[in-house]
Specification:
- The chain has one domain.
- The chain is globular and about 45 Å long.
- Helix content is 79%, strand content 0%.
- The chain has 10 helices and no strands.
């Protein structure tokens, strides 16, 4: 069970949220990204590099210089500094998409929401150890849910599947004793509220 839980935790790592959103929206609701499907793979690679590889490198450097004891960041106090740096990276990435790259205004807005999710995680970490996995996947559900009506059936099915996967992710975090039920619940609620409210406000 623990191996399955670890696998689920890796596949649905919070830093992969932006990449998954690009792929989901790009293939199931192309008008949302305002990008030709032919450019989607390259765009996804760019997003993956900026929102996963760059923060992951940041974590590796912190581990290499013993600023953190583990990449899993199981201790709340150890999370503070890495999360501050990751939040700064996401803020810079959002700013870059808005003011420099500017390929898709809609994705630029989504990048503001994902940056808000990271900032909320960072702020919460000062006082509470929240489940970032739960926050991330429910943030994605919050982002996608308002798009179900204009996107149609395909995205509705994707959201239903994502809710099922969210249950697996939450169960995996509990199975690994990485979080308490309350930490998982708080992460889920915060993630969904920011994702959903962000979409309502920005779109």
């Amino acid at each position: 069970m623990n191996k399955a839980a670890q696998f689920i935790s890796i596949v649905f790592h919070p830093l992969l949220l932006s990449t998954y959103l690009v792929l989901l929206l790009g293939y199931l609701f192309p008008p949302m990204l305002l990008l030709p499907v032919s450019k989607l793979p390259l765009f996804a690679v760019v997003v993956f590099g900026l929102t996963f590889l760059l923060p992951a490198l940041n974590l590796w450097i912190f581990k290499r210089f013993s600023i953190i004891s583990s990449l899993s960041l199981s201790d709340r106090k150890e999370r503070v500094i890495p999360f501050i740096f990751i939040a700064l990276i996401y803020i810079l990435v959002a700013g870059m998409f808005i003011y420099r790259i500017n390929l898709s205004i809609n994705f630029s807005r989504i990048s503001i929401i994902t940056a808000s999710l990271v900032i909320a995680t960072c702020l919460l970490t000062f006082i509470y150890k929240v489940s970032v996995h739960s926050l991330s996947i429910w943030g994605a559900i919050g982002i996608l849910l308002p798009l179900c009506k204009p996107a149609g059936q395909s995205l509705v099915y994707a959201v239903i599947l994502l809710i099922f996967l969210a249950g697996l992710v939450m169960s995996a975090r509990l199975q690994l004793n990485a979080h308490t039920p309350r930490e998982v619940l708080v992460g889920s609620l915060v993630g969904f509220m920011i994702g959903f409210d962000g979409m309502i406000i920005l779109f």
